[in-house]
Write a structure and sequence with these properties.
Length: 380
C-alpha cells in the first residue's frame, strides 16, 4: 500500500494540467438516453505468484478500449476511441495505467492476509461516469470480491457494500487511510471521465446515431409438446438497440409472446429472437410485427404460413423470361434458316450476309448463356 500512493502522487504531478478540476457543464438538452463510459478490471489471483488481469473500456455496451498487458498500452478499438483528448493527455493516462496495472496485483498480494482475501480469489472493478452529469453521484466506482459486491466509492470515501460484512468494512478502513488514492479516484471519476465521455460521444456521434434497418424472418422451433408449434421470429442487424417486436393476430398483441435477450453482432448491430408457443391449428393468421426507429413508421409484418408475395413474383418473372427466351430463340433460328437458303441462292450478297451470320451467331451464344444461367437459377 505504500507504492500505490507514491505512483498516484507521481501521476498527480506529471498531469497537473490534466487534473485541474473543472466545473462540469450539463450536456445538450437533447432527450437522449444517458450513456456511460466505464473501465472494467478483472483480476484473478490463483495463488501467491500467479495473477491475471484484464482491463477494458466500454461506452454503454460497446467495447471501445482494451488494455494490452504485454505492451502496457491502451488499444483503441474504434477510430474515434481517443475522443477529443490530446496525444499528450492520452500518453499521461497510459503511463498511469501502466504503473497501475503493474503494481495493483503486487499490492493486493502483499495485503491479501490483512484484507482477509483467500486464494484463489477474483476481484472485479467497475468505474466510470454517466453522460449528462447533473450531480457527482452520476460517477461510480464499484468493487466486487468473489463475484459479490464488496465496496464502492461514495462522495469522497470508500464504503462497504450492504451485506459484504466485516471483511469489506475492514478493507474500507484500510483504504480510507490513503488520502492520495482517494484524490486520484475523485479526479478520475468527477473530472477526467465526464470530459472524456463528452468528447467520445461527440467523436463517435455518427456511428452511435446510425440507423440500420433490421432483417426479419420466421422459422419453426422444436415442438414444445404434442400438437403444438413454436413460432420463431428473428430480427437481425438493427441499430440502435431499442426495438419492439410482438406476435399478433390481426391488431391483437399475443401476450404469450416470449422475448429473448438482445444479442450483439460483431459489427455493432443487434439480433433478437421472439417466440410464440401455439396449438398447431391456430398458427395461421398470426404475424410477427417489428417496430424500429430505422423503419420510419413502416413496421415489418411477417405472416405465418401466409403466401409471401415476393418469392411468387420472382418465380413468375423467371417463367415469363424463359418463355420469352424460347420464343425469341426459335424466331432467330427461323430467320437464320431463311438467310442460309438465300445465301445459297445469291452468292453476290455474301459480304453483308456474313456479317449478319456472325451477328446472329453472337446473339445465339448470348441466348445460350442466358438460358444456362436461368436454368441454374431454376434448379436451386
Ligand atoms: C499458481 O497457479 C498457476 C495457475 O493455476 C499454476 O500454474 C502454478 O503452478 C501455481 N503456482 C503455485 C506456486 O502454486
Ligand atoms: C472535449 O469535448 C468536450 C465536450 O464538447 C469539452 O467539454 C472538452 O473541453 C473538450 N476537451 C478538449 C481537451 O478539447
Amino acid at each position: 500500500m505504500f507504492l500505490l500512493p507514491m505512483l498516484f502522487k507521481g501521476f498527480l504531478c506529471c498531469g497537473a494540467s490534466v487534473l485541474a478540476l473543472q466545473v462540469l457543464e450539463p450536456r445538450h438538452p437533447a432527450a437522449e438516453e444517458p450513456l456511460s463510459f466505464r473501465i472494467l478490471q478483472i483480476s484473478s489471483f490463483a495463488n501467491h505468484s500467479w495473477v491475471c488481469t484484464h482491463g477494458s473500456g466500454w461506452l454503454g455496451e460497446l467495447q471501445t478500449h482494451s488494455w494490452d498487458n504485454v505492451l502496457g498500452t491502451i488499444r483503441f478499438l474504434l477510430p474515434w476511441a481517443q475522443g477529443n483528448f490530446s496525444k499528450e493527455e492520452l500518453k499521461n493516462i497510459q503511463a498511469f495505467l501502466k504503473l497501475y496495472f503493474h503494481s495493483f496485483p503486487q499490492e493486493v498480494q502483499a495485503f491479501s492476509s490483512q484484507l482477509q482475501f483467500e486464494y484463489p480469489f477474483e476481484l472485479q472493478l467497475s468505474l466510470g461516469c454517466l453522460s449528462r452529469p447533473v450531480k457527482a453521484s452520476e460517477s461510480f466506482f464499484n468493487g466486487a470480491y468473489q463475484g459479490s459486491d464488496f465496496l464502492s466509492f461514495q462522495g469522497n470515501s470508500w464504503t462497504p457494500s450492504l451485506g459484504a460484512g466485516s471483511q469489506a468494512q475492514n478493507a474500507c478502513t484500510v483504504l480510507n487511510h490513503y488520502r492520495v488514492i482517494k484524490e486520484i479516484v475523485e479526479v478520475a471519476l468527477y473530472d477526467i471521465c465526464p470530459r472524456f465521455l463528452a468528447g467520445l460521444l461527440q467523436a463517435g456521434k455518427s456511428e452511435l446515431e446510425r440507423q440500420v434497418k433490421p432483417e426479419a424472418w420466421l422459422s419453426k422451433g422444436p415442438s414444445p409438446g404434442p400438437g403444438r408449434l413454436l413460432l420463431i421470429c428473428h430480427i437481425s442487424g438493427f441499430h440502435p438497440k431499442p426495438v419492439w417486436v410482438m406476435w399478433m393476430r390481426g391488431e391483437q398483441e399475443q401476450q404469450a409472446t416470449q422475448r429473448g435477450d438482445i444479442l450483439p453482432h460483431a459489427d455493432g448491430t443487434w439480433y433478437l429472437r421472439v417466440t410464440l408457443d401455439v396449438a398447431a391449428g391456430e398458427a395461421t393468421g398470426l404475424s410477427c410485427r417489428v417496430k424500429h426507429s430505422s423503419l420510419g413508421g413502416h413496421d415489418i409484418i411477417l405472416y405465418w404460413g401466409g403466401i409471401s408475395i415476393v418469392p411468387t413474383l420472382i418465380c413468375l418473372m423467371v417463367v415469363v423470361t424463359l418463355v420469352l427466351l424460347v420464343v425469341v430463340d426459335s424466331l432467330f433460328k427461323k430467320q437464320r434458316k431463311s438467310f442460309l437458303a438465300a445465301d445459297t441462292q445469291d452468292p453476290r450478297n455474301s459480304g453483308p450476309q456474313l456479317c449478319l451470320a456472325q451477328d446472329l451467331w453472337i446473339k445465339d451464344r448470348l441466348l445460350e448463356k442466358w438460358k444456362t444461367s436461368l436454368n441454374q437459377l431454376w434448379r436451386r
